[in-house]
Amino acid sequence: MRILVTGAGGMLGRDMTLELAARRHDVVALTHEDLDIADIGAVRERISALRPDVVVNCAAYTRVDDAERDREAAFAANALGPRNLALACRRVGAVLLHISTDYVFDGEKGEPYTIWDLPSPLNVYGASKWWGENYVRSLLPEHYLVRTSWLFGEHGRNFVTTMLRMADKCGADELESSRTVSAPRGAVQGFDERASVFTTREGATAENQRAPSGGRRHIPVVADQRGSPTYTVDLAKACADLLETGCFGIYHVTNQGVTTWYEFAKAIFARVGLAINVRPVTSEEFARPARRPRNSALDAYPLRETIGYVLPPWEDALARFLSGLGKAHERREG
Ligand SMILES: NC(=O)c1ccc[n+]([C@@H]2O[C@H](COP(=O)([O-])OP(=O)(O)OC[C@H]3O[C@@H](n4cnc5c(N)ncnc54)[C@H](OP(=O)(O)O)[C@@H]3O)[C@@H](O)[C@H]2O)c1
Predict the structure, then answer these.
(1) What is the CATH number of domain 2-152+228-256+296-312?
(2) Mean pLDDT throughout 275-300?
(3) Which residues, judged by CB distance below 6 Å to any ligand atom, belong to the binding site of ligand 1?
């Protein structure tokens, strides 16, 4: 199939492009610079010229806190963008696979959200993504709408890389443990605004906090938001499999299992063998411009019935991701 990937320079976009190319599809990968999906003229022109069978939209405005004051830009990319793609796909008879988010839900449900639950977003980012979903669903029947959550991957800043970077700043003691992968310390650069909700101030948190005993620093992490961390490699594979089915509709695609950011952080440090004190805190203690849902666990039904499997547990995905990071770091060092 000829497949056009938009937002191909992003964290998911890059793994999606790799996965589709590995399956020998004819992949055209367009970054933000190559194609602004908010520009209806450019979108129509590109899609009419390329005549893809499928468009996979990985482009989005993803800075959740910034979106609160940058409303127009968030809606341009996340609402008008998918609308433009849906309209252009309709013209050429292409299918659209659009990526959406757990943040379309308000988090008040006491159990995982099914594909039949009605969204009610808490923040501008979530509202803009919800409008994007609505446009896709109303304008183009031949769509896959894939909601996912808490992404981490090799090609972008995310919660895992942010935690590792903060650990670096902490000057953490390394644990001697044969079961852990080699710690990719120093391998991670940058800070992810999307993850900053879980820390006090722009990554400086760890340097300012000291544990009461032993003098070791600690990292405060939010413990009252629940969701499913998801590895972009696993998500890309499931999306590529979905494309083979012709079963259009909404899907919830996350790694299996539900956790809190606090437990997730502890699992990251345990995996790489870093002795970091993680302190559980509430969302109120770390108020951010954008509110987040307390529960954004997504029920996978009917993913298994459609592609034959659900994604592996998030712990397994984290282990694979960290092992890849460690090996990449060793290659650079060696
Ligand atoms: N990250 C998460 O935790 C998470 C959770 C749930 C759902 N999602 C969804 O998953 C998808 C992929 O997210 P991601 O984490 O890979 O995000 P990402 O790393 O921020 O990638 C998004 C890409 O889209 C590009 N982009 C932004 N506006 C655009 C526009 N108007 N036209 C074309 N490209 C544009 C960005 O380019 P610039 O950087 O140059 O702006 C970036 O390369 C998104 O739909 C997101 O909403 C993400």
Answers:
(1) 3.40.50.720
(2) 93
(3) 6-7, 9-13, 32, 35-38, 58-62, 77, 81, 99, 101-102, 129, 148-151, 156, 194
